[in-house]
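Form 7-S
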Amino acid sequence: MDAPLKELLKLEKLEEFPSSSSTSRTAIKSSSIPDPLEALLQSLQELKQQVKTGSHPIALQDVAKLVDEKKKEIDEKQREIHSSLGKLGKSIDKKFPSPLPSSPEMFTSEASMAALERTISQHFVRTGQFDTSDAFRQEAGVDVDPHFKAQCVEMHRILSALENSDIGPALEWVNANRSFLSSRSSPLEFHLHRSHYLRLLTSSSPPYLEALQYLRSISPPLYDAHSQEIHRLLTCIIYLPLSKLISSPYADLANPSLHMDLQPTFAREYCANLGMSKQLPLRVVGDIGGGGALSRIEKGRKVMRERKSEWSQTNELPIEIPLPPENRYHSIFACPVSKEQSTEANPPMMMGCGHVVNKDSLEKLKKAAGRVKCPYCPAESFTSSSLRVHF
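Output:
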């Protein structure tokens, strides 16, 4: 969905620029359609007033010239908007090559509509669109938990501070939730201090006393878990300034991603502390459904209707749906013998030779005295020695 969203953002920005009285090409591109219209109306009102008072003679050629100038501005802006709309349409068509499947109407009951509207409102809150959320809440009549909204406001306040290279609010949150972060072995606190230390180091000159004093003050509580990283932060000084550090064995410490990754890392830990998923539910639905899942399911339904067959498993899909790595929440193992996916009742088992099959397949391969021959190599082993594998 990145390409359509990018084109949509471009289209929205066409209306965000201030108006300009200049008629140059740059000014034409930086004004919205209402601007020249309002300027034309204002000029015509002034001319009308001058005609009534007779204070200034008006030439019709000047009026026609003014109208032509404003019309040219509007035409330029319309062409720009139509071009942006065309690009948006093409990106949507490219993202959704197959038509959406036909299905019975959903969200028809009051409970389902309320759940949908609540999900949309919470999406706006989680993404920091608080004004949009308030407007949607008023129009849809849906309520959002004030405590949940306050937590999201705090999260975006801290994210804004991190964007401005201010780690203070994030460290305050870390100190208040240290036990939770420790239970997850989270490196968030170290990453925050590392970012600030590197900024001090690369923005100062020898002997780097301020940066070294900062590193010395933060090291004691973090040393046990991050001793090697702290040693690297200390010894990278010999490769300063930054121009030399980039081509040194410590080049990774000069990578801007060390600072840019603070925001997603903090958002992930903050959401985990609230019991929320790190990904936005609506974004996941859009990415998976729009990424081809709906068209594949519809194609499978069409084939099954033509063959007059039905899918008997209620908790499985009749076809495999490929997912991007960020949407794979658990590993799935398919037995090479039975071609069935593993479950808690039928887990993957590794035989003595190292090959893995499902437990049911292992039981079917078992011979007398509990011996089993691997279907993929000559090795034999006992079923009692097989180990369950966790993917």
